[in-house]
Amino acid sequence: MALAQAKQDVTEARLAALSLPEGAGWIKAAREDALARLRAMGLPGRRDEYWKWTRPDALTAPDAAQAAVFEGDDTPVFGEIDRVRLVFVDGVFDAAQSDDPTLAGVEIERLEAAAQTDIHWLKELYGVLETRGQDPVHRPLAALNTAYATDGVVIRATGKAERPVSLIYLHESETSDATLHHVIKVEEGAELTVLENGPAAARLNMVMEVEVADNAAFHHVRAQGRDHERRAVTHLFARLGTESVFKSFTMTANGVLTRNESVIELTGDNATAHIAGACTGDGDFHHDDTVFITHDAAHCESRQVYKKVLRNGAAGVFQGKILVKPDAQKTDGYQISQALLLDGDSQFFAKPELEIYADDVQCSHGSTTGAIDETAIFYLRSRGVPEAEAQDLLTLAFLAEAIEEIEDETIAEDIRTRLEAWLARRRGG
Amino acid sequence: MLEIKNLHVKLEEEDKAILKGVDLSIGAGEVHAIMGPNGSGKSTLSYVMSGRDGYEVTEGTATLEGADVLEMEPEERAAAGLFLAFQYPVEIPGVGNMTFLRTALNSQRKARGQEELSAGDFLKLIRAKAADLKIGADMLKRPVNVGFSGGEKKRNEILQMAVLEPKMCILDETDSGLDVDAMKLVSDGVNALRDAGRSFLVITHYQRLLNHIVPDVVHIMANGQIVKSGGKELALEVEENGYADILGDVPGEVV
Q1: Which of A338, A382, A413, A419 is the best mutation test for B, with the most CBs of B within 10 A?
Q2: Which of A209, B52, B155, B199 is the most exposed place for a label (fewest CB within 10 A)?
Q3: ipTM of this predicted structure
Q4: Any domain includes B208
């Protein structure tokens, strides 16, 4: 079916000023394929079902809208964690600010360098997981990313990494438009933790493709930057092998627009995938978690835990699906999405879905929207806890289930501290 | 300690008077009991004292050591030494019992201008108090009241009381839902806290609890007023003859 003219127009307007980056034959082909995919799908519009609750306009416009740089003076997240730091400024890798990317059992390369290499393992993954993730739901912004991304990291873990790889995204220009594409391959039996933090740019389009091989483990903790006016769309594509473990947690505080899509395929028996998010929004804030988990092997476990605290007209969206294929017997799937609305102006939209074709599975999902429990507030106050602190305590308790998905206790504590600070800043405000 | 004079209270949402002139004077170190049939206003009195929303005081006063209780926020009342053991203790998922107790204690200390207790000192304190009430480490770690049995919830209330060391304790039907053993444990906990500087107001339907927590004064409440007061033998009289008999003597509305 031909694309509607309006959609074609939006797509071509976005592409007009772009040209496909140079590179080795294989990546050139991958980029051309991605462009063809994108042209066939067209960029998302307001009428698309998958974008029902999130306006894609700012993400599809030819230029990034201006976004003021947030002058945060507090210590950045993960500051106390011993890690390999890779710094990107407005979407461009900055070697001078980064650590020497040497880590035993881990190869780290810049995408740009890998793309010039004629023979590279990256060929098997670049745009491959993204392509797999286009069915049954279109993700045109990810295809756009695959076609035009010039920067990002390419990581291959062959052993148990001693330290996390930490991607730091600095935002310095008010009109920067960043496209980052990371590819991570965790080989059989290897373990890797990747941290991400920072706003990245005025507008960010980020794709991360992660292949977790048999018996491998991948941990991912992300803190999306506090810059209030930034906009971001991210896609996390993961494919999991037998007995592998994948855990991802995202904290989002601030940002006028964030759409985080996660597409996870469990393709080996006994694999585990946990994905969680905690977001806190105040005022002009729109946050969308869109998740698609496919069980395509037996005895796998997946968990989705999403918590949103919203106030002053902030909006939250959750679209989460568990698809259980016919052979994925003994699947254990769990999905919860909850919003805590701190006032009557905020909104939460949720679309939890289960689609199950195997007959011996255990899947549950739940979604709730509610105000803070006044009875609990009174109980705390009657014990001497002032009202504002009581509210913070209950808000953190609400977020706790998502934070508990972070495996590393030090990192979890760091995240908890950030959320506490966010709440404290808003006290009485 | 606690002086309540001519207290009239109505529901905020509707024009329904619940307390119609309650007078109560509890001296330091005294234990008073309030008994009365369902709907007499016993629990409302405890809610109004603790500062719960939904009630409007239309007349009268209540002071704690001379300070106007009705003017204070709930947390200020707590810091001033008022404690309500809830009839239905509230479950707070996600907040550990220890965190809850420590936050409460330190909030009160801060409000009173005292230094906050360190994690170590708090741990010592809580372990000692919990052991007395046969509360194990598991109950301290779990989220507040979540998954607690009826008896555990009530013991947890008494533990909070023991940790916070209030001056004026109001126990709202603490005996409801307790078996004989749990009632003994809870009563022992309360009795251990009795001293010359601490007063209790025990609200109950049944005389049974008062065998364990022996009151100095027993009041009978009906239709929003205290209609009769006496010694502990008044409770026995209720147990034997029921409320109707006693209330029959009382002039005014028939309940």
Answers
A1: A382
A2: B52
A3: 0.93
A4: yes
Residue A222 neighbours by CB distance under 10 Å: 24
Q: Which residue of B has its CA nearest to A375?
A: B90
Residue B255 within a domain: no
Q: Which amino acid is at A376?
A: A
Domain extent for B76: 2-249
pLDDT category of residue B250 using cuts at 50, 70 and 90: low
pLDDT at position B177: 81
CB contact under 8 A, B52 and A396: no
pLDDT in tens, B180-204: 888 888 899 899 999 999 999 999 9
Query: How many domains does chain B fold into?
Result: 1
CA distance B103 to chain A (A): 7
- The answer to the question of residue B232 being in a domain is yes
Q: What is the mean pLDDT of residues B45-55?
A: 93
**Beta carbons of A378 and B52 less than 8 Å apart:** yes
Does the CB of A387 have a partner CB in chain B at under 8 Å?
A: yes
Whether a cis peptide bond, with omega within 30° of 0, leads into A136 is yes
pTM over 0.90: no
